[in-house]
DNA sequence: ACTTGATCGTTCGAATTCTAAGCAAGTAAA
DNA sequence: TTTACTTGCTTAGAATTCGAACGATCAAGT
């Protein structure tokens, strides 16, 4: 039900714009570093990092795509590039013949290990240096809650059920 | 001097990931609405919105590009699309013959006015509904400060000065 | 078994994006 | 003024991205 749509006050609007601008600028900055230091795009870094973090270093394509907020076809394309560079391998899953398990190779782990310190350093400089006091605690609290809320909120176009909807 | 690179603690890392994921999901959600309701991409909406906000409803291409964190050539492309749809006009600036002034048309203003309520509504539902108490105040304080810090921090690859650098 | 429907991943084509190169116009120094 | 450099924008071509269509596999229900 959530409140009879009063729009956003100017503080909310400012926070919204700031959020989008900060994430854009941050992504540009780290992307630049990743390319220079490891010839990786931000997306590729995300994929590898997520795999390194996963148990056994492997994930199904779909879970990986959901994790990095990315389309399946886009992931197929990037996985092709990463596989060509020997940073990951792909193999059909034993349990489910449809799905493909993606696994980081040692080369992939090495590359992430090589790039990570500089990456983290940039994030610290840009994002956390200007914070003070309880800023971090509040920020991570709020963002964590918002993230859960978003994950739980299905996209508005939540599948027109069968077919015959959508007049017009 | 900012601290001898201790990396990031796990709370910082979590906040960083949450920030990127939240902005991604939020952008997907509003993008979906904008396309359905006004046949606009998120970038196009940003361009128009920024113009509507500008004095006289016009801006130079470069300032517009910087404002939306976008490449110049990308903006040229999008401006072409928007002009074709009659939402903006382009004209050479009187003062500086090089630069191009972009202006929102009435149609452009109307479209933004049409789309804005739904847009804002989604942002409110996804981003602000799960907030409470002083969350908003802190968030906008922190993000505002971070944004200023980022704008002031030049990209690391701050122009190889003249030409003869970049061995290799 | 047999149909129906959902899920998984890829391929295809179109749209978007970036970088590099180029042109035109401004600025500054000689 | 002439030269050199910078700035503003566009063009050209390659790379990336997405959505729709597809083939294959699984999961139920009958």
The residue-averaged pLDDT of chain A reads 88
| Number of continuous helical runs of chain A | 6
**Structural class designation of chain A:** mainly alpha
Tell me, briefly, the overall form of chain A. Answer: globular
CATH topology of the domain at 17-129 in chain A: Arc Repressor Mutant, subunit A
Q: Any overview of this molecule?
A:
The structure is a homodimer of 168-residue chains. Chain A is 61% helix and 8% strand. Chain A has helices at 10-38, 42-53, 61-68, 72-84, 106-128, 135-152; strands at residues 58-60, 88-92, 100-104. The first copy, chain A, has a domain at 17-129: Winged helix-like DNA-binding domain superfamily/Winged helix DNA-binding domain (Arc Repressor Mutant, subunit A, Orthogonal Bundle), CATH 1.10.10. A three-stranded antiparallel β-sheet of chain A has the order 1-3-2. Chain A is mostly helical. In chain A, strand 2 (88-92) and strand 3 (100-104) form a beta hairpin. Chains A and B meet through helix 1, helix 5 and helix 6 of A and helix 1, helix 5 and helix 6 of B. Chain B binds a DNA duplex (30 and 30 nucleotides) through residues 41, 43, 60-62, 70-78, 96-100, 162.
């Amino acid at each position: 039900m959530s409140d009879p749509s009063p729009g956003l006050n100017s503080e909310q609007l400012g926070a919204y714009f700031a959020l989008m601008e900060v994430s854009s600028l941050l992504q540009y900055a780290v992307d630049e570093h990743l390319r220079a230091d490891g010839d990786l795009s931000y997306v590729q870094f995300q994929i590898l990092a997520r795999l390194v973090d996963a148990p056994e270093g492997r994930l199904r394509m779909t879970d990986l795509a959901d994790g990095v907020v990315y389309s399946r076809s886009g992931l197929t394309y990037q996985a092709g590039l990463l596989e060509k560079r020997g940073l990951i391998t792909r193999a059909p899953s034993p349990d489910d013949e449809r799905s493909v398990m993606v696994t980081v190779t040692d080369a992939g782990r090495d590359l992430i290990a090589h790039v990570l310190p500089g990456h983290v350093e940039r994030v610290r400089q840009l994002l956390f240096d200007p914070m003070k006091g309880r800023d971090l605690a509040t920020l991570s609290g709020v963002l964590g809650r918002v993230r859960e809320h978003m994950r739980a909120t299905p996209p508005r176009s939540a599948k027109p059920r069968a077919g015959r909807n959508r007049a017009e």
